Amino acid sequence: METPDNATEATDGAPSPTGIAAQDWATASADPQYRAAVVDLLGALAYGELAAFERLAEDAKLAPTLGDKAALARMASAEFHHFEQLTDRLTAIDEVPAAAMEPFGKALDEFHRQTAPSDWLEGLVKAYVGDSIASDFYREIAARLDTDTRSLVLAVLDDTGHGNFAVEKVRGAIEAEPRVGGRLALWARRLMGEALSQAQRVVADRDALSTMLVGGVADGFDLAEVGRMFSRITEAHTKRMAALGLAA
Q1: Which residues, 6+ apart, have CB-to-CB distance to 83 below 8 Å?
Q2: Distance (Å, rounded) from C-alpha 52 to C-alpha 115?
Q3: CA angle 142, 243, 165 (to 5 degrees)
Q4: Rounded average pLDDT over 120-124
Q5: From CA 95, how far away is CA 103, in angstroms rounded?
Q6: pTM of the full predicted structure?
Q7: What share of the chain is helix, strand, coil (3-state, %, to 5)?
Q8: Higher per-residue confidence, 179 vs 202
Q9: 13 exposed, middle or buried (CB, 10 Å; 0-12, 13-18, 19+)?
């Protein structure tokens, strides 16, 4: 997963973390509800990384050149490494990775089924738009996590190179055949709607995660802030569309 153009960086004027965000895992995990929320979060992330690996491997089959195929293979390898980091952490905190991931399989599989690309360019746009929306969502949550979990989550959201790769290929295709832009813009808007709906469904179905988002176990996260969070994600999507040369 990646969102290199939209990564949230701490600034000198940013307030110091408080509450759970200032604690380490050993301290924060004493709260069973917080622990359950983190297990859900890591499970969802792990399944997402595994799905990203599988999708990139499939997309490589559609690549028009050997160079493109190799580039996607490298990105798929990076996603699988992220998956291993997450499952290793789950094991380290005495959780079974498969059990942590299982609740999220159906929703994520349905999202990918409903948004199966029909060609190479749609696959690139899906990876860039869909993965970046997910990364933005997880980065927002990461700001409220304990220091150890936050470091892990941010590490697995590091850019695999897919963002810049997708922008280069899509912009080149539109320059070569401008009418392609209209079709891809419609596709990206559909992806945005499906991705946000899927994120909301996942959170709504998991009590610990939803409680984290509305402030029950996370520091300073209220319902109004949830609304602002989704507004920021939407704004970042608009910027990505511009980077692709598409209208939001």
Answers
A1: 46, 49, 50, 53
A2: 13
A3: 80
A4: 90
A5: 14
A6: 0.83
A7: 75, 0, 25
A8: 179
A9: exposed
